[in-house]
Amino acid sequence: MTLDSISILRQYWGFESFRPLQEEIIQSVISGKDTLALLPTGGGKSICFQVPALMMEGICIVVTPLIALMKDQVEHLRKNGIQAVAIYSGMKKREVDITLDNCVYGKIKFLYLSPERLYNDLVRERIRFMNVNLFAIDEAHCISQWGYDFRPPYLELAKLKELHPKVPFLALTATATERVIVDIQQKLNFPKENVFVKSFLRDNLAYMAIEEEDKMGRMVRIIHKLGGSGIVYVRNRRETQEIARILINNGIASDYYHAGLPGQERDQKQNGWMTNAVRVIVATNAFGMGIDKPDVRFVIHLDLPDSLEAYYQEAGRAGRDGKKAYPVILYQKNDEKKLVDTLEASFPDVPFIQQTYHYLCNHFQIPYGAGEGLTVDFDVVTFAKKYQLPLVPVMNALKFLERDGWLTLSEAVTIPSRFKFEIDSTELYKVQVQYVKYDKLIKAILRTYGGVFENYILINEYEFANKLGVPYGRVVELLKSLEALEIASYLPSTDAPQLTFLQNRVDYKHLYIDHIFIRDRHQVKGEQVNGMIDYIEKSHCRSQSLLLYFGEKNAGFCQVCDLCLMRIHKESQRAKIKEEIKNSLLLGPKSLHDLIDSLTFGTEKRRIEIVRDLLDAEVIRLEDKLYSWNTLF
């Protein structure tokens, strides 16, 4: 490896040497080769594109679907004196325009983009004029329909090579099966196979999967026993609050996190956990991507993940410091049925998808023959309730509409709170006189905003808290109370994705949906769900099962997972019982009853089982109902 790369590593990151495979990957990129790198969670993927980009003239374009990761990496690069910018949903057109200009004419070294941005002709055209030295594709498994998190906008990435044919791709992912590895390279048009794979083995992780009726009690006991910092993953937002409350009631400093919280609140919660002010964060899978906290001692799943790929990534957030850590699944038999039911709900039929499109266009009042390029804030829960549609099929119908090029759905962005008075000014004055506690807030709203009787206006609760000199929570409480009295409508800040229509509206009966793709995708997801269930039910070693799933055929027993510990205990107990049987029979022949009573290890059933095994192996003999030791052994 060149001195330049080591100097850059030392100068900007303070490391004296690279981690395994980083050097080889960097050399491949510097040589201009399209490269696929598989490094497990915490394996240092970002170094693999950041170092070579700094070694070369020009700008590195990083494509990632994770806005939180974009912001985090841009912030870190800037702190290190490296010029970096990001373009993501929610930015104004003028803001995007200035950012792209700086990339063309300025000294920006890294431009982070969401894949949806590549649908924009303006963005693609400006990239053409940039001096690009590398295309880094993060979460590269998203390009493959065989992967666990297929995202249609990733299919646009191959077009980057049309803009800069000689610039190499560096595709990066933490999880990919053998089929996905092949598919990534094909989708990105690699001229020849070029893959660097670090073993998926994390030998400091003691994987556990425990069938448990009392999940809450077991979870609390595990956390108390293990100590340290951890994550508890649940399936929905409501559960994050409920579980956090249970932990707090059991003396465990905890908080909850989900994508529906305002951005500022999410940052505060994440920072509290990162700095260990909070021991345990209870979260949906929206939490954790791009977060590098080394001292996580446990990751507990209270619901079954829908694939081993997802589980490996989430579990891999434990033990990044190399010390022993525990990824634990707590499950009940009914959880497997829930997983299968969710799978079936995730694949609506074509008429349902067409109907969803029809309702979607009506929802946003789009006329036939219009709508191309329209971008709107989209709350899928409100939409589903309005048209009385089941939520899970609707969310997946949107994915299939996205895959067939009818729309794109971006990662969630924060939508500010909205407010509107539902009574006229005369009635409102009576309220101010009758309910003094609302008077100051109502006056502040009327002084700050116009049109609040006619339209919803965007409000900032923190701004009013500062003006009135009261806590933020008190402002929210008053606003909710006004709504409860039907004086006003208050819609708290939510994280809603942005939806963009890519084509003009057509009659839904003529809407093309690729039913063959849906059938194939259903099969893939079915295999992934079965893989998860097999991991729970049929593993001989948890770590070995994960490694085999990802194509590592010669994996041995890890000796630290729950199954290995049980097997070791059983083998140890067997050896002790066998030794006791030998010592007892060497003192003289015994009846089965007397022999079993002379033993101290194991249950009666286990002792009898081992006696029978030894009898079958002719290690002991049975004559006239008396057992004796075969002296040949």
Explain how this protein is built.
The chain has 633 residues and is of the alpha/beta class. It contains 25 helices and 23 strands. The chain has a 7-stranded parallel sheet with strand order 3-4-2-5-6-1-7, sandwiched between helices. Strands 8-13-12-9-11-10 form a 6-stranded parallel sheet, with helices on both faces. Helix 11 (263-274) links the parallel strand 10 (254-257) and strand 11. The longest helix has 25 residues, at 562-586. The radius of gyration is 30 Å and the shape is globular. Residues 218-358 form the Helicase C-terminal domain.
What does this entry show, briefly?
With 633 residues, this protein is an alpha/beta fold. Helix content is 46%, strand content 15%. It has five domains: 3-197, P-loop containing nucleotide triphosphate hydrolases (Rossmann fold, 3-Layer(aba) Sandwich), CATH 3.40.50; 208-331 and 527-549, 3-Layer(aba) Sandwich (Rossmann fold), CATH 3.40.50; 341-414 and 496-513, Arc Repressor Mutant, subunit A, CATH 1.10.10.10; 417-492, Orthogonal Bundle (Arc Repressor Mutant, subunit A); 562-629, Orthogonal Bundle (Arc Repressor Mutant, subunit A), CATH 1.10.10.10.
